[in-house]
Amino acid sequence: MLYNVVQSVKTVLKQGMKAWYGMVGFFRSHGIVFRANSRRLLSYRDKYKGQRCFLIGNGPSLRMEDLEKLDGEVSFACNIIYKVFDKVRWRPTYHFISDVVAIHAINEEGMLDKILERPLFSNKDVYAKLKRLQDVGEGVIYLNRINQQKYRVSRNPLAYYVPAQATVMTLMIEMAVFMGFAEIYLLGVDCTNTFTEGHFEKSYTDKSVDDYNLEWVRKKTNRPNLTLFELGEERRLRSLDAYRKLKEYADSKQVKIYNATRGGALEVFERVDFDEVMK
To answer: Domain with 172 in it: what CATH number?
Structure first.
């Protein structure tokens, strides 16, 4: 009973936040900004108009030699991508983190400095968590966030975005469109169950982080018997739904999204051969 009441109150508050963020986003879209963070975010609108970029996922298909080929390309990476930094010279242009659980894992490993070496895009919750841990300076650009059950494309990151609650890649794609890219290539986006199929590194995260993640979701959703496998499958299906919506959005903006991943289970976007793309 209490849980249902709390959810009802949250729904009302979210509607109010949507209205407020929407109004703020309208003014920001017209160049009326008052905060330094908003000015930084606005400066990225159409910054790369007509160009191409590569969005790197952390799926098991990711190859180190492929990353080396991205020298000179604009690339986005996410979460614990620094695990490859001792194996490759490549570094992403931008870093993305949308989940405080990822910050927990990175902080546990003492690697916060690594994710702050280049511009980091996040949301207000992640930003607040980072600020509590160390001085982040001006290297973090955050977006307002509206949590809701089903993902939808916000269409205006200057107002807010809606997380898919499955993958940070949705935020990366939305920002790539916002930045004006005409071609977006996905690499290492396997769209598989990360808790069973894993990531590009067996030591990507240890069991304690997965357990922390599971307990956090159990408490948040009031499902004490949820398993890691079930959580992984739910996220995989949510991500597929989000990718379909993102494809429709990209098509409406005449933006092409290609899947250059070697293998994996993502068939929403047109597949291309990474080697051919990089010739």
So the answer is: 3.90.1480
